[in-house]
Amino acid sequence: MPLFDVIGLGGEKHAVIIDIGAAYTKCGFASETSPRHIIRSVITHTLNGEAETVDVITNEQDRRPDELYSILRDFLHQVYFRYLLVNPRDRRVVICESVLCSTLWRNTIAKVLFKHFEVPSVLFAPHHLLALFTLGAPSGLVLDCGFTETVVLPISFYNLKSRNLKVMLLDPWLHHVYEGTAILKAVRTIPLGSRAIHKHLEEQLMDRSLVQIETGIKPLSSVMNSVGRETLEDIQVRTCFVAPKFSGPEGEQRPASLVPKVDYPLDGGRILRIEGQIREQTFDILFDGDDEEKSIATCLLDSILKCPIDTRKPLAENIVLIGGTVMTPGFKHRLLQEMYCLLQSSEYKENLFIKTIKMHQTPVSANCTSWLGGAIFGALEVLADRSITKERYAQDSNIPDWASCVVQALDNIPILDERTLERPVLSRRQTSGITSTLSNISSSLSSRLLSGGSRSPLASSLLQRVGASPSSGTSSSIKENDKENQKEQKQ
């Protein structure tokens, strides 16, 4: 239980920050430095009277909307009442979402939070923007390498001279708090992540590894048909690493590995022997590329190529790596090697003139960077203005996409239309009416100032501004204008 709930100092309680990933979910409270709990994104769901363990994030096309609603409802109930132990009605919610999050998933989780848990407000924030929020950097190239895929999204800095005035007026929070915007045309994705590593690792283990059992040593394929997901993940984390790039001549066979073998205990007293070549070459699938010869390094360089030419150098010098896969030892060093080698190739050498590549060191572990950005933003006062309130959701249940052009009106900041920004065009009759009104005001003002006899310096300055003469109550030019205005009004 949070300390402020026990003391009861009053005021608004800290918001709940939830980062639902494909493999793990981070949950905690705003203004804290780390999540309270990191749990698996799975739930034991009862369907047709049978209990089964399903993933919270999967292909939404394979599920019906009512089934997705029940899964998210049970999962969030577990988050609130088993791990966080708070009342959802008392706290705002910040959802750290992926750039590729579907509209169905976003609308469903909003429906669960507003209809079932009755939360005050919800804010959907993308991972990449929140990662830069922890560094205080206005621009950067964010690479998110998670469980299912790798997404590269550049965040560019607004130029004050070329910034669109309409954007500033419609979104003042973006101008004052976080001066950065996503370059959507430069987004690059590749289906390479921990899932691809698990599949490659299982294939290598089945082909080459041996298992020591009571009767002797046998191949792994003869003992079991497959290796569990949790076992593969544990082998990947405990025994594997990212080796440097092989720098031998093209076509030369890679020498035998000098990495020692390790023994990994399995259930039932069995011992799995993992060779050194498997340990150091498992992660090569991320850098060798897929069927289209695309790798993580090519995604980064292709994303920079799609950005404006004046932003390429700052983006290359501000690369941020997030996601659980990038925490593997040697990942950052291998990625730099691959990028420098690609810059020397003919494909990028003629188009990219980048000599320096720099990567940020995140303040926390890479898998919790986005959650920390949400915790920082959730502690700001601007959270109430940027969130979707329960009352607004009751009027319109559609959740706008974070990158869409639909802008919601804030409670205290009016939205200006384009017609408001244009200079009004007045007709001749409207102009004459304004002129007659101003002349009447000047006449009455001059008569009052001259009625006192003596004239003060202030009165003289006012008379000069309205065009009145000290000797006469009103000037002849004003009287002539009055006559012309009266004739035009009669006509």
Automatic annotation (TrEMBL):
<feature type="compositionally biased region" description="Basic and acidic residues">
    <location>
        <begin position="479"/>
        <end position="491"/>
    </location>
</feature>
<feature type="region of interest" description="Disordered">
    <location>
        <begin position="461"/>
        <end position="491"/>
    </location>
</feature>
<dbReference type="InterPro" id="IPR043129">
    <property type="entry name" value="ATPase_NBD"/>
</dbReference>
<feature type="compositionally biased region" description="Low complexity">
    <location>
        <begin position="461"/>
        <end position="477"/>
    </location>
</feature>
<protein>
    <submittedName>
        <fullName>Actin- protein 10</fullName>
    </submittedName>
</protein>
<dbReference type="InterPro" id="IPR004000">
    <property type="entry name" value="Actin"/>
</dbReference>
<comment type="similarity">
    <text>Belongs to the actin family.</text>
</comment>
<dbReference type="Pfam" id="PF00022">
    <property type="entry name" value="Actin"/>
</dbReference>
